[in-house]
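re: that chain from earlier
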Amino acid sequence: MPACLTLLELHHVLQALMNWDDSHLHEFEFRGVLYGDEIAPASPFGGPESRDEADHCLADLKLRKGSRIGYTYDFGDNWELDIAVQATLTPESGRTYPVCVGGQYAPPPEDCGGLWGYGELVGAWLDPDDPEHDWAVEILGEDWDLEDPDVERINKRLKRVQC
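^ sequence. v structure.
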């Protein structure tokens, strides 16, 4: 991802990566500071301050290899992503960014009940005798593959993200 990406744009990138539809609240956390579209002053009782994600880009955070940014999406399902900087590289000429270079698993669908609900959904999909199997197939698809993040499809979605 380019260093000039704002945290708001990073949110849109994450939505494309996960194939979510941006229908819930979210926030970033970096070094004890929260960033989101809802900003609030620091609490006199010790709560963290909040900053506008649209006003801060990745370069402002002075990220380096090993830096971590927390991202929470959908405070009901409570998806908590830990974004780790693997490397900082010089952009390749002629390459479009952001780009997904790989992944380990298929992303969970929107509104599936968080980590626990996703586990139940996957379990039902894997077990043809589960009473929820047909529902899981309807949600995930007949040819769904847990271990295939479908990088090609992710990159098609990323090309539609306006950064």
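The chain has two domains: 1-104+150-163, 106-146.
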